[in-house]
UniProtKB/TrEMBL annotation:
The gene is lon. InterPro entries: AAA+_ATPase, ATPase_AAA_core, Lon_bac, Lon_bac/euk-typ, Lon_lid, Lon_proteolytic, Lon_Prtase, Lon_prtase_N. It comes from Clostridium aciditolerans. This is Lon protease. The active site is at S677, K720. Pfam families: AAA, Lon_C, Lon_lid, LON_substr_bdg.
């Protein structure tokens, strides 16, 4: 086959390779090249462009120039300042140099024009095309340097040879690679080469990116910090300052030396400090160590306050700050006396038990005050997990010490008064029983070496005076209860509340609101009025709130109406606090059949508890409705059995259990009541209903009963008596066994109530039932 030959001026190219279809401009400076260009312009604007093997060579010879090049069409020539010319060309086809015709004054050569063969659409070719497209796609995504329009035009190209040339022209490749692609005249071979090169490039790009991201992130963060720190160091050095890291270490070191730590603690602290030095202060580890060191250094390992053992002055403080609460005060004084004698405060832990608002917390605070000890309070309500008492191990992220150590830090001395509030509200779950941990805390034998999981050091708790509080004893774990001495703080009578209000709450609140010079006066009768009609509680918490409210309203009125004095009387109370909230349910004024007033004791204080029984013809059913807990249901059944067994004695039809239905009802009250002290009440009501004898309306009773009719002791006598008194009762029947508790009943109550002691149900019935003439 004849070669398609053509004689053309030739320009050797430095550093670029031109592919067919490629449009490109380049600058021409060498004289030889400019002459070649001019020649081309004179003939048909066609020129043969071939790359030099070495771009550096200024005057290339034959052997310095490749033989495969591109025949191009010159599109534009632009003269630039100096002797340079800018040429815009478009590749037409490959050309192979046959021989040089002239070498001077410019290169002229005979060139074989190599048009692409129409590629056979073989499967292989097609597969190659697809692979090339895919690889190019990856390449563009990774390199990000190829405009989107290009990719779109490529999609429309279906000539494989042309496709590969166009793609080749876009790639950023080494000169040899480009030349290799240009020399591949056979289309399949060209595609294969292109695919190899592309895949290789894609791999490199991927790797680059991977390294790039990693390195970049690392470099960004590390370098930034590094440079900033180095800068800081440099600045500090310039200023003659020590660098921050060193300063911090020195600071800790000073603190450790000054802190007078026990030997082991000091060793541990120094060990951690060493670790801090090595960990780099900005690492996460550094943060953990610093927190730990702060904890160690903030704990009162050795700081101690000096106890005030002057019993007289302690008594004075207690008396001054609290009204009543004689039991607690006496117990504290005993405590001090023992301590003074033996110089040891070991002994059972005090547990103050009583309804909310009776002053358990505030008396504990007073005790601390009287003893001259620091005071800390920690509520145990809702604590379920042992770690809350004893801390989390340091290996936990964000670990902190337990509440005991936390409290000790707040206490700032190793011998504070530590109040553990709501010890009855603790519970346990699968993470261990907090009560066990607490046992160790409270146990004088063990607590000198209390170990917190976080601290990993022993802390001496033996000088701490622990006092606990609870609303009721029932839910306190038994082993804990055994270690404590229970002091009951029962509710207050209206008189007591009045004194507390007048002598303590009112002055305290006036001071808090900064009211001076008797500008606000609350009369005694209005205090009573508030106690009776706006509060219904064993303690004085809501009374305290009402007093605050009265004071605030008075201040508002003084300012609004420009008054400089306000006297609060009962009318003012009504206008400030609104209509009365409670009016005590007074007892019926007449005696009734089957209705008996019982007395109950709840976590919130005492209350009265009417029990109603009716008997009607039926088949011997016993029905129980209303507010009856399980214990009271048992009492009702036991009472029923007792009456059945003793029917004759009380003149009741012995067959009643066959032909009478009995219905026992306890009306709903605000507070659910349950407890083992309604036995006598049930029996009395049943007998009254069955015998038709009336029950005296002014009598209330409490007591549990055995099946033989014996009356058993009850708890909360004071609370119950207060409730009966409030309800307008004048006679209360109580178990004989409770006689000893009468001494705890306030005189005012005792003078208004007559107490009847019963050891048998017969005594109860005799006193409660109205005799039928
Ligand atoms: P508790 O701990 O029993 O729930 P608090 O100690 O919180 O009760 O007492 C509530 C408020 O009543 C406090 O302001 C307290 O000072 C006051 N208070 C309670 N009892 C007395 C009392 N006997 N004498 C003086 N103030 C009291």
């Amino acid at each position: 086959m004849d070669k398609n030959l053509k004689i053309l001026p030739l320009i050797p190219l430095r550093g670029i390779t031109i592919f067919p279809y490629m449009v490109i401009h380049f600058d021409v400076g060498r004289e030889k090249s400019i002459l070649a260009l001019e020649e081309a312009m004179l003939v048909d604007q066609k020129i043969f462009l071939v790359s030099q093997k070495e771009a550096k060579v200024e005057e290339p010879e034959e052997e310095d120039i490749y033989t495969m090049g591109t025949i191009c069409n010159i599109k534009q020539i632009l003269k630039l300042p100096g002797d340079t010319v800018r040429v815009l060309v478009e590749g037409e086809s490959r050309g192979r140099l046959e021989k040089y015709i002239e070498k001077s004054p410019f290169f002229k050569a005979e060139v074989e024009i190599l048009e692409d063969d129409e590629c056979d659409k073989t499967n292989k070719c097609e597969a190659l095309v697809r692979s090339v497209r895919k690889a190019f796609d990856d390449y563009t995504k990774l390199s990000g340097s190829i405009p989107v329009e290009t990719i779109v035009t490529l999609e429309e190209l279906d000539n494989p040879g042309r496709l590969s040339d166009v793609i080749s022209s876009y790639l950023m490749l080494k000169q040899e690679n480009k030349q290799e692609l240009l020399e591949a005249y056979d289309v399949e071979e060209r595609l294969q080469k292109l695919l190899d090169i592309l895949s290789n490039e894609v791999d490199i790009l991927k790797l680059e990116r991977k390294i790039g991201v990693k390195v970049k992130n690392k470099i960004d963060k590390v370098q930034k910090e590094y440079y900033l720190r180095e800068q800081l160091k440099a600045i500090q050095e310039e200023l003659g300052e020590e660098d921050e890291d060193k300063k911090e270490i020195t600071r800790y070191k000073n603190r450790i030396t000054k802190a007078k730590l026990p030997k082991l603690v000091k060793e541990k602290a120094l060990y951690e400090l060493d670790r801090l030095k090595n960990s780099g202060s900005y690492s996460a580890e550094g943060g953990v160590i610093r927190t730990y060191l702060d904890w160690i250094l903030d704990l009162p390992w050795n700081a101690e306050t000096k106890d005030n053992l002057d019993i007289k002055s302690a008594r004075m403080v207690l008396e001054k700050e609290h009204y009543g609460l004689e039991d607690v005060k006496d117990r504290i004084i005993e405590y001090l006396a023992v301590k003074k004698m033996s110089n040891s405060l070991r002994g059972p832990i005090l547990c103050l038990v009583g309804p909310p608002g009776v002053g358990k917390t505030s008396i504990a605070r007073s005790i601390a005050h009287a003893l001259n000890r620091n005071f800390v309070r920690m509520s145990l309500g809702g604590v379920r997990d042992e770690a809350e008492i004893r801390g989390h191990r340091k290996t936990y992220i964000g670990a902190i010490p337990g509440r005991i150590v936390y409290g000790m830090k707040q206490a700032k001395s190793k011998n504070p008064l530590f109040l553990l509030d709501e010890i009855d509200k603790m519970s346990n779950d699968f993470k261990g029983d907090p009560a066990d941990a607490l046992l160790e805390v409270l146990d004088a034998e063990q607590n000198s070496t209390f170990r917190d999981h976080y601290l990993e050091l022993e802390f001496d708790l033996s000088k701490v005076l622990f006092i606990t509080t609870a609303n009721s004893l029932e839910t306190i774990p038994r082993p804990l209860l055994d270690r404590m001495e229970v002091i009951e703080v029962s509710g207050y009578t209206s008189e007591e509340k009045f004194h507390i209000a007048k002598d303590h709450l009112l002055p305290k609140k006036l001071k808090e609101h900064e009211v001076k010079d008797n500008k606000i006066k609350i009369s005694d009768s209005s205090l009573y009025f508030v106690i009776e009609n706006y509060t219904r509680e064993s303690g004085v918490r809501s009374l305290e709130r009402k007093i605050s409210s009265l004071i605030r309203k008075s201040i508002a009125e003084m300012i609004e109406k420009d008054k400089d004095k306000i006297i609060v009387n009962t009318n003012k109370v009504k206008s400030y606090l609104g209509p009365e909230l409670f009016t005590y349910e007074k007892t019926d004024k007449e005696d009734k059949i089957g209705v008996v007033m019982g007395m109950a004791w709840t976590g919130y204080g005492g209350d009265t508890l009417p029990v109603e029984v009716t008997a009607m013809s039926g088949t011997g059913k016993l029905e129980l409705t209303g507010q009856l807990g399980d214990v009271m249901k048992e009492s009702a059944r036991a009472g029923y059995s007792y009456v059945r067994a003793n029917a004759k004695k009380y003149g009741i039809d012995e067959e009643f259990y066959k032909n009478k239905d009995i219905h026992i009802h306890v009306p709903e009250g605000a507070v659910p009541k349950d407890g083992p002290s309604a036995g006598v009440t049930m029996i009395t009501a049943i007998i009254s209903a069955l015998s038709g004898k009336k029950v005296r309306h002014n009598v209330a009773m409490t007591g549990e009963i055995t099946l033989t009719g014996r009356v058993l002791a009850i708890g909360g006598l004071k609370e119950k008596s207060l409730a009966a008194y409030r309800a307008g009762i004048d006679t209360v029947i109580i178990p004989k066994e409770n006689e000893k508790d009468l001494s705890k009943i306030p005189k005012t109550i005792k003078s208004k109530l007559s107490f009847i002691l019963a050891d048998n149900i017969d005594t109860v019935l005799e006193q409660a039932l109205v005799k039928i003439d």
